[in-house]
UniProtKB/TrEMBL annotation:
Signal peptide: none
Matching PANTHER family: CELL CYCLE PROTEIN, PEPTIDOGLYCAN GLYCOSYLTRANSFERASE RODA
Topology relative to the membrane: Multi-pass membrane protein
Region (Disordered): 453-474
Compartment annotation: Membrane
Keyword Transmembrane helix part of the UniProt annotation: yes
Protein name: FtsW/RodA/SpoVE family cell cycle protein
Keywords carried by this UniProt record: Cell shape, Membrane, Transmembrane, Transmembrane helix
This protein's record includes keyword Membrane: yes
One Pfam family here: FTSW_RODA_SPOVE
Amino acid sequence: MSVVTNTTTIGAIELPSRRNTELLLLAFAVVIPIFAYANVGLSIHGKLPPGMIAYGGGLAVLAGIAHLVVRRYAKYADPLLLPIGTLLNGLGCVLIWRLDQSERLQNLAKRQFGQFSESAPRQMMYTALAIALFAAVLLLLKDHRTLQRFTYISMAASLVLLILPVIPGLGADVFGAKIWISVAGFSIQPGEFAKIVIAIFFAGYLMVKRDALALASRRFMGLYLPRGRDLGPILMIWAMSLLVLVFENDLGTSLLFFGMFVIMLYVATERTSWIVIGLVMSVAGAAVVGATASHVKARVTAWLDPFACYTKSGACEQVGQSIMSFGSGGVLGTGWGQGNSDLIGFAANSDFIFSTVGEELGLAGVMAFLLLYGLIIERGVRTALAARDPFGKLFAIGLSGAFALQIFVVAGGVMGLIPLTGMTMPFLASGGSSVLANWALIGILIRISDTARRPAPAPAPSPDSEMTQVVRPS
């Protein structure tokens, strides 16, 4: 005896969106900076700061808006990227406000400029603009694959962004580095946005050329070396990075662009030889420019022995004070508001803000911040692995690689591991360009992760499959 039953086609199983998880993590990401803000006020002034409610409310509103946009327009996005970015940005505002309370920095500003203005309110304004840009990215960029159409346009745009700071009358020389432009009284760092634009070009170009770069090669001493004509792209990027280093005196942007290209090239071709070639070319270029460019040479000298030229060079003095800040912090730190990293001067809230973390939060705080940055990088790499299209894979790994390189060169510079680069710590340092660009980067990664995690649509029902016979033995 047998039983005949009717079954219908089963649709795609919907994955959990994890938006409630994101909301819960956002609550912690808002509460922790509020407690840090209160801790700084109690430590410096002996009472709760009067702006604590306004700061906490503002951060909560911005985080809530960002969450609602993600919930509506990127339902299946990674749930960790937004909370980690909010936590880092919130703690960055607290660190900047803590340095604003330094009487030494206030007196220094009054002596040089005649007045002192706090940086923390401006940073909150930049954060609001950055969240607006983050929302605009998710609203306007419905599918990251549309950016592939602008491969060569993005290359031209990135070159324009890099050239702008060296144009007379538009570019500004700040402490020897020509990486800023001044527009309507505001200073903008185009290189922060160029890293996103040039990643579009790298992803689009390597997606088309990866087979030629990977397969056409010769074996030499265990390495697969590319053909001469295939070396053209890496030679072009190497030359461009050297030009940035020479004309803008910007070691950080030069390392960032060339390193990002080598990472994406390795991922696209899976050839270790590209890593070796990239390292050799970067070391050779840095050695030549370091021996000829005075600004870069001063930073190399400060890196080799900052205390030998402590009283002769400003770069040596800053590096020496930064190293002493990390040393005095110990394992657990001196506590919020109890350090002396403000002795570094105006760079304390920008290039050297990580020194305040090392002194006041100690080794434990440094490792916590590096862990948060590492989680952003890990989620970006995971997004690249989950992406279903080659352009999305390369684009996500390029953005994650650029973010990782920036963390390495900034943290390594202020700790004395490598020469100073002049770049700013993402989400922590004072400045609008950095926070805007990095929130845009987070928005793009969220869009790619949403596309990667979104379940495939259910196939259209077929009349032939509506009725099937399932025979079960009695």
